[in-house]
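Example for tutorial group B:
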């Protein structure tokens, strides 16, 4: 495949800069000299009388950014005679001009994570002493869009393949977010159209040249809540998370109080019997890894609400001990035990039921499912999550139907 790509390699494009010769002694070095010379021709007799025709040659290849992986091939009449590879900057030993055919070419491919690979072809007889290859970044891919609301405290999360360059501003009907040099799949655009809540009544995602524009409207237009934007890396997944958070004037105290009231209505009967069939089915559908990523969020209002839910579960336990999914029971009496549980909330038995009650008690009417989706599985398509919820509800209903 690489050979075919090399044969199709384009001539040097304007983005490739040719620079004057530089010292090569410090660079990593490879050899790209074919084992056999080109066929002899009478015209080469006079060329052989020149001293420089026998002198060794070298090509220094650098990339911007540095560190790209280079794949090189020496071609004669379209046939690969020698191959070499290495990381830029790379010094490449070439045959002397006397051992270089008039039509010989050097094919180069430069690749760097997060950037568009470049392929180019140089005439071997006139190869420059130094070559710089400029690489452009790949467009950021928008992977998911999720909206989470806790009373009048809201958070919109955008997960992307790399750091996003963005502009955010208020608009006549709400807000506008422009993501520079970004793309999104059709499923992400559908997710945007499905965003609904007290903060966002309608959202659209559309391309704007090389950019993406996300517009979201609110009934009555933008309000006066404080808006905070933050972006952080998700190193375990080599992704980036951009969060837009609407902070109520009281800093979220009313939202926390609403969460506490919703959880106070949770009874032991809501956690036992056939309700456990719902949790077992949903846990199996989502998987432990998905729940661990979603429930271990730190630094936003989900963490506080999760703590309130776990504390309520401990209060409802007959002996004050939390039951874990593996059957172990842990009290929250000490700070160490509390931290141990909060570090792995996905293991807490009954937590999915508590969050179901929280979503039902706080989400605006008709958005409970989307709220639970944002809590438990924001990376999954809403349709897939809906199917998992319906299966879990069916398991609970079947249990209740048994005599």
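The residue assignment follows.
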């Amino acid at each position: 495949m690489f050979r075919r790509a090399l044969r199709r390699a384009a001539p040097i494009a304007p983005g490739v800069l040719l620079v004057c010769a530089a010292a090569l002694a410090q660079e990593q070095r490879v050899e790209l000299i074919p084992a056999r010379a080109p066929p002899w021709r009478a015209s080469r007799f006079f060329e052989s009388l020149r001293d420089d025709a026998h002198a060794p040659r070298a090509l220094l290849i650098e990339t911007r950014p540095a560190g790209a992986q280079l794949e090189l091939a020496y071609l004669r009449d379209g046939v690969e005679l020698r191959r070499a590879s290495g990381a830029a900057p790379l010094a490449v030993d070439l045959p002397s001009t006397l051992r270089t055919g008039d039509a010989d070419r050097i094919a180069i491919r430069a690749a760097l994570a997060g950037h568009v690979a470049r392929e180019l072809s140089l005439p071997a007889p006139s190869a420059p002493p130094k070559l710089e290859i400029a690489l452009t970044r790949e467009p950021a891919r928008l992977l998911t869009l999720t909206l989470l609301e806790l009373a009048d405290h809201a958070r919109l999360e955008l997960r992307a393949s790399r750091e996003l360059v963005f502009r955010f501003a208020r608009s006549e009907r709400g807000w506008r977010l422009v993501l520079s040099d970004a793309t999104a799949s059709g499923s992400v655009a559908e997710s945007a159209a499905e965003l609904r809540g007290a903060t966002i009544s309608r959202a659209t995602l559309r391309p704007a040249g090389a950019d993406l524009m996300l517009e979201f409207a609110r009934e009555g237009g933008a309000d006066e809540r404080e808006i905070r934007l933050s972006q952080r890396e998700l190193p375990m997944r080599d992704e980036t998370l951009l969060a837009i958070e609407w902070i109520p004037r009281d800093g979220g105290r009313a939202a926390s109080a609403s969460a506490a009231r919703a959880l106070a209505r949770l009874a032991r009967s809501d956690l036992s019997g056939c309700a456990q069939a719902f949790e077992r089915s949903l846990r199996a559908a989502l998987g432990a890894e998905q729940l661990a990523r979603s429930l271990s969020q730190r630094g936003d209002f989900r963490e506080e609400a999760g703590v309130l839910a776990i504390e309520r579960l401990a209060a409802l336990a007959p002996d004050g001990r939390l039951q874990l999914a593996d059957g172990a029971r842990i009290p929250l009496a000490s700070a160490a035990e509390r931290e141990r549980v909060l570090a792995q909330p996905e293991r807490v038995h009954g937590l999915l039921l508590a969050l179901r009650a929280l979503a039902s008690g706080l989400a605006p009417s008709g958005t409970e499912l989307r709220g639970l989706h944002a809590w438990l599985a924001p990376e999954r398509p809403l349709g897939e999550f809906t199917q998992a919820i319906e299966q879990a509800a069916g398991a609970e209903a079947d249990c209740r139907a048994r005599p």
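The longest strand covers residues 140-150. Compare this with the pattern of hydrophobic and polar residues in the output above.
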